[in-house]
Amino acid sequence: MKVDLHLHTTCSDGLFTPQQLVKKAYELNLKAIAITDHDTVDGILPAIIEANKYKDLEVIPGIELSTHCNGQEVHILGYYIDYENFHLKEQLLDLQQNRIKRLEKILTKLNDIDIQIKYDDVYKYSRGTSVGRPHVALALVEKGYVSSIKEAFDKFLAKGRPAYVPRKKLTPIDAIKLIKECRGIPVLAHPGLLEDDSIISELITNGIMGIEVIHKDHTKDDTAYYTKLALENNLLLTGGSDSHGEEPLLLGTLDIPFKYAARLKDTAKVI
């Protein structure tokens, strides 16, 4: 029995609606999936409602919070969160409003170099509330300025490129606290992508409860190293494809044991 505990929908920067993602997961015979959109919980309830149509598929309510520490991005996953929590929704609204302000600055910078992209060109790709650079990249592809999302980032949107604009982020410690306030389980996402993973010891001290040891961008050595680190510190193990609906489809392609989801669920019961 396989699971996938790191997935995105159209409510952030994925290509599948929550309903489409659930249907696809069922067709792939997954037993549990986690909806972990960037800085939004809007996809959770539609996914849970859709999953009720199918047998033996659990949708875990989750989120992926984008944080920043010591010059690097650190993503914190939250599992079994109370997605109706008022304080959580208040914090997410603030982050979403800042995403909109960031988009305005990105479009201004593109306009300054004669790249004519309008708000509507971007928003039509953002069917959720969490608008971001991938949606700008899709608009750039549609308008013919680039041939792929990767080229859009490499030429215009990545750090150091002409239209890059940093965004307001929580600190990892803020994210851990916020997830715990929502009775959720905070987990460090894809540590193999960190420029400097010495921050992990600080996260452990401040209440991180798990590490995503299996990820599409982890090598076998990464998985072995972070699994050992997690077990030595009595942390939960998780794993996910980080699928955004791209082709070839990553959903369900990684061998993530069902016991990872089961242990998350058991832990959530006693929080």
Task: Write up what this structure looks like.
With 271 residues, the protein is of the alpha/beta class. It has helices spanning 18-27, 44-51, 86-112, 119-123, 133-142, 149-157, 172-181, 199-205, 220-232, 258-269; strands at 3-7, 32-35, 58-69, 72-79, 185-188, 210-215, 236-240. The protein folds into 2 domains: 3-83 and 171-269, TIM Barrel, CATH 3.20.20.140; 91-157, Orthogonal Bundle (DNA polymerase, domain 1). A 7-stranded mixed sheet has the order 1-2-3-4-5-6-7. Helix 1 crosses helix 2 (44-51) and helix 5 (133-142) packs across helix 6 (149-157). The two termini are 26 Å apart.
How many beta strands in the DSSP annotation? 7
Helix content: 40-55%
What strand order characterises the main sheet?
Answer: 1-2-3-4-5-6-7
Number of helical stretches of at least 4 residues: 10
**Strand residue content:** 15-25%
Uncertain stretches of 5 or more adjacent residues: none
**pLDDT averaged residue by residue:** 94
Structural domain tally: 2
Topology:
Layout: E1 3-7, H1 18-27, E2 32-35, H2 44-51, E3 58-69, E4 72-79, H3 86-112, H4 119-123, H5 133-142, H6 149-157, H7 172-181, E5 185-188, H8 199-205, E6 210-215, H9 220-232, E7 236-240, H10 258-269
Summarize the structure.
The protein has 271 residues and is of the alpha/beta class. It has helices at residues 18-27, 44-51, 86-112, 119-123, 133-142, 149-157, 172-181, 199-205, 220-232, 258-269, and strands at residues 3-7, 32-35, 58-69, 72-79, 185-188, 210-215, 236-240.
